[in-house]
Design goal:
The structure holds 2 protein chains of 2 kinds. By secondary structure, chain A is an alpha+beta fold. Chain A contains 16 helices and 17 strands. Chain A has 3 domains: 296 residues, no CATH class; 113 residues, no CATH class; 61 residues, Orthogonal Bundle (Arc Repressor Mutant, subunit A), CATH 1.10.10.410. Chain A is 40% helix and 20% strand. In chain A, the strands form 4 sheets. In chain A, strands 1, 6, 7, 10, 11, 12, 13, 14 and 15 form a 9-stranded mixed sheet that branches. The longest helix of chain A is centred in the middle third of the chain and has 22 residues. Chain B is an alpha+beta fold. Chain B is 32% helix and 9% strand. Chain B contains 3 helices and 3 strands. In chain B, strands 2-3 form a two-stranded antiparallel ribbon. In chain B, strand 2 and strand 3 form a beta hairpin. The chains are: A alpha+beta, B alpha+beta. Chains A and B meet through strand 2, helix 1, strand 8, strand 9 and strand 17 of A and strand 1 and strand 3 of B.
């Protein structure tokens, strides 16, 4: 059979995000990655009989924060349920999750697409559950189990099947990664498994304008691929599954359908750069959800909702738009500055302190980014204050230092915490002003402020104030680069005061 | 619930979910007992529950929440005291593939 002309990928995503709380979800063991195995466990998280879970308030609030940032509703009443299955990394033999009454429901996220367009992707729900432990496969004949991760709060975000291409999947995944880091609810370090993707991928065979209209086409089987912990593996998996479906359609035609084959679980093999079959619908799990009797339901009132809403603030997409509009910087620069909120906060504070946005951006994305890169941290974390940044930007604007000197000062500033002015002086990095340049600024100030000039020349009560005003004007024109002494000397000369 | 017939297949399925091995004879006995229990519980179905809110918890409690402040964990030796087998700091189990999540 030949390849059908009309196929449309239809993809939904589940995203697991480990929340960056201090403690686990139901006990007060530390939520910490990378420590020796089984050093953060207690009767609750290793599933000892008789132990009782108590819900972590911060985990609930972090989840609400994400849900609300995704424009979800936070219903008044939410509860938890047991999802039963056996696996060595799940000591209780059930996972505490949420089944029919999740914490947040019905939202959306607008994702950027190439060409400046955006697309709205529906969010079905974002619910709060617990992570399982970790199976360690480094042993030849057996598996080791580390339960440090067991019971770590895990937010599961589920999208509607609105994604229609690999590009859209990747844009969504990146936007979600940025959002949770932005909100400060997760480090979302994928190598540490703090963010994991699970795409559900099917092809609609038929009119792409009429997806879900059964008279216009049909779906291939849905492939669910769990535990993808890098953007690369997510991208590769989506493309691989789409290609696989195309090949099966060509081979089997209508027989390769959701109705005939059902849903299947596949796994991504990094070493093969391909997916492999895990199980079909016959072996689908029977989770037997039922309400968790050991946990009280959570009731969310308006006051609580409002308190969380206030913590959300400006979101990355809105901030990026503002930067493009107000700071007149490039798309690329705006992206780099909105990867996390503290970096943009630093920029905004420096601008508020009177610095030129473009100069601050150049400093941050130049020397700032290179230092951050060396240290493997965010630009906001290299420890410079908005005041330091603003002062250096002003020195640059006023020609008090040149770009090369500014880079040296920046590095020194990060190292010592001193003000750029002090560093410039100590290191002899200040530009030397000739009287001519300052003279030009003095002439400009004189030309623009005839009234003040008259007051100075007339002498009397107003003279001192007017002279001070003109000095200020020249200082401003120099961007703070000239020294008041120089300015006053020249003003005296020119005005004969 | 009663629409589902308690047959041997269902008993076998439940036994598998609970990881319990049983003989055909035991399955037969358990099947009869299960049917009896389910029929007994079905009496509840005779009650008129229109307008009764579904119960999420046996007690009328809400919002039992703990502050996110670290407490004490168990020493490894104590945590693993009941482990049937271990390899250093790890619980030792038969070879499995992947993680459950």
């Amino acid at each position: 059979m030949t390849k059908p002309d009309n196929t449309q990928p239809v993809i939904g995503l589940e995203i697991h995000v480990e929340l960056a709380t201090e403690t686990k979800m139901f006990c007060r063991c530390a939520n910490r990655f990378g420590d020796p195995p089984n050093t953060h466990t207690c009767p609750v998280c290793i599933g000892m009989p008789g132990s009782l879970p108590v819900m972590n308030k911060k985990a609930v609030e972090y989840s609400m924060k994400v849900g609300m940032a995704l424009n979800c509703t936070v219903p008044e009443f939410t509860k938890w349920d047991r999802k039963s299955y056996y696996y060595p990394d799940l000591p209780k033999n059930y996972q505490i999750s949420q089944y029919d009454l999740p914490l947040t429901i019905d939202g959306h996220l607008d994702i950027p697409l190439t060409g400046g367009q955006t697309k709205r992707i529906g969010i079905t729900r974002a619910h709060l559950e617990e992570d399982a432990g970790k199976n360690v496969h480094d042993f030849p004949a057996h598996t080791g189990v580390d339960l440090n991760r067991a019971g770590v709060p895990l937010l599961e975000i589920v999208t509607e099947p609105h994604l229609r291409s690999v590009e859209e999947v990747m844009s969504f995944a990146r936007a979600m990664h940025r959002l949770v880091r932005w909100l400060g609810v997760s480090q979302a370090n994928m190598e540490m498994g703090q963010m994991r993707f699970e795409p559900n991928i099917s092809l609609w065979v038929g009119d792409p304008e009429k997806v879900f209209d059964e008279s216009a086409g049909y779906f291939t089987p849905i492939f669910e691929v769990k535990n993808l912990n890098s953007f690369r593996s997510l991208e590769r998996t989506c493309q691989w599954v789409i290609d696989y479906h195309q090949a099966r359609i060509a081979e089997k035609g209508r027989g390769w359908s959701l109705a005939d084959v059902g849903k299947q679980n596949w796994g991504f093999r990094d070493d093969l750069n391909a997916c492999e079959f895990q199980r079909g619908k016959e072996e689908a799990h029977d989770y037997r959800y039922f309400p968790e009797p050991d946990l009280a339901p959570v009731v969310v009132d308006d006051a609580w909702r409002e308190r969380i809403a206030k913590q959300i603030g400006e979101l990355p997409i809105a901030r990026k738009a503002r930067y493009l509009d107000k700071y007149k910087i490039s798309e690329k620069e705006a992206d780099a500055l909105t990867l996390d909120s503290p970096t943009g906060d630093l920029l905004d504070a420096a601008v508020a302190a009177g610095a030129e946005a473009k100069r601050c951006v150049n400093l941050m994305l130049g020397k700032g980014a290179s230092i951050a890169n060396e240290r493997g941290c965010r630009i906001a974390e290299i420890r410079i204050t908005p005041e330091q940044l603003a002062e250096l930007a002003k020195m640059l604007a006023g020609g008090k230092v040149n770009a090369t000197a500014a880079d040296k000062i920046f590095a020194k500033m990060v190292e010592t915490g001193d003000t750029p002015g002090k560093i410039a002086e100590a290191e002899g990095l200040l530009a030397i002003f000739d009287a001519g340049k300052i003279g030009e600024w003095v002439d400009q100030a004189i030309a623009k402020n005839p009234q003040a000039v008259e007051d100075v020349r007339a002498g009397g009560k107003k003279q001192k104030k007017a002279f001070g005003f003109l000095t200020g004007q020249v200082m401003q024109l120099s961007g703070g680069a000239a020294t008041p002494a120089q300015v006053q000397k020249l003003l005296h000369e020119k005005l004969g005061g | 619930m009663t629409e589902k017939k308690i047959d041997r297949k269902l008993i076998r399925h439940i036994a598998l979910l609970a990881r319990i091995e049983m003989t055909d004879e035991q399955a037969e006995t358990l099947g009869r007992q299960f049917a009896g229990i389910v029929a007994y519980m079905d009496k509840l179905g005779e009650l008129d529950t229109d307008g009764v809110e579904p119960m999420a918890h046996a007690l009328d409690v809400r919002n039992v929440l703990a502050e996110d402040t670290p407490g004490r964990s168990l020493p490894v030796e104590q945590a693993m005291a009941n482990a049937p087998a271990r390899d250093g700091g790890f619980y030792k189990v038969p070879k499995v593939i992947g993680d459950s999540q």
